[in-house]
Specification:
Pfam families: Peptidase_C39_2
Radius of gyration: 42 Å
Keywords: Signal
Distance between the termini: 109 Å
Protein name: C39 family peptidase
Strand content: 15-25%
Order of helices and strands: HHHEHHEEEEHEHEEEEEEHE
Oligomer: single chain
Number of strands: 13
């Protein structure tokens, strides 16, 4: 009991020891003379002030930003091919001036649709030509002639034998009229060609005179090259399609939007090594 009573007397002394110190500090603070607060300059030292942007913005600046945003939105959208398309492209006949000029005449239709002021005769003069003459055997077999990959082979007017030009001379001529805008669709899936037409661009495309499989094959040498190709080759302008058909502007018949069975046409196009050119 004595030990317990002694502990009870000591406990209040431990609990109040800090209170006594705080009272002493408080009394000392009351005796300190209050100095007026020092107010420093509110502007930070050694900090450069921010310059105001005094540039003025006009309507064109804002408009360009809006256009950029809309262009980004357009590029983000996936392309969806239309179920059917039919472009209204002027028809131009290759005859009587260019009996063998289906390539440049089809190209003239396409370029006019693109807004280029030209005609078949101008393109006839400007397209590259392979000048190698036709050499036949005594039996009439073709021995040597030009290469359509290099330029038009033979005489386009029909006064002398003439054949054709393939896609590269046509691409070169398109780029001459529409710098940097030629599109070579050769060896692309036919669906890609239809997508291009769906986007509003007619396509110069290789086929045969009756849009069927070729049946008049010929071969000759050109230097060290051996060229085998159908003589009943023809070039038209693809201007439309629907589920089962394609629509062609034919420079030889002079008919516009000729309706042809799609599968039949694709077979002839495949036989002509899937050649097609356009612009963008």
């Amino acid at each position: 009991m004595k030990k317990l009573s002694l502990f009870a007397l000591i406990l209040p002394l431990l609990g109040c020891s800090h209170v006594g110190e705080n009272n002493e500090v408080s009394s000392k603070q009351n005796n300190i003379k209050q100095e007026p607060p020092i107010i420093e300059d509110e502007k930070p030292k050694n900090v450069s002030s921010t310059k105001e942007d005094n540039r003025s913005y006009n309507f064109n600046d804002l408009n360009s930003q809006i256009i950029n945003i809309s262009q980004e939105e357009e590029t983000a959208k996936p392309f969806v091919k239309k179920e059917s398309t039919l472009l209204d492209v002027i028809i131009i006949r290759q005859t009587p001036e260019l009996r063998n000029g289906c390539e440049v005449t089809s190209l003239a239709m396409m370029l006019n649709y693109a807004g280029v002021q030209t005609n078949k005769m101008e393109l006839y003069r400007q397209i590259k030509k392979d000048p190698d003459p036709l050499i036949k055997s005594p039996k009439g077999d073709f021995l040597h002639w030009g290469n359509p990959d290099h330029g038009f082979v033979g005489d386009m007017t029909g006064k002398q034998p003439g054949y054709a030009a393939f896609e590269q001379p046509m691409i070169d001529l398109i780029n001459k009229k529409l710098p940097g805008r030629a599109v070579n669709l050769t060896n692309q899936p036919f669906e890609k060609i239809l997508e291009h037409v769906s986007s509003g661009f007619p396509v110069v495309i290789w086929t045969t005179g009756d849009y069927r499989l070729p049946d008049r094959w010929e071969a000759w040498n050109h230097g060290k090259e051996y060229i085998k190709t159908p003589l009943d080759l023809h070039v038209v302008l693809l201007v439309g399609y629907d589920e089962g058909h394609v629509y062609l502007n034919d420079p030889l018949s002079g008919k516009k939007q000729v309706k042809v069975n799609k599968d039949q046409f694709i077979a002839s196009w495949n036989a002509l090594k899937n050649r097609a050119v356009s612009y963008k």
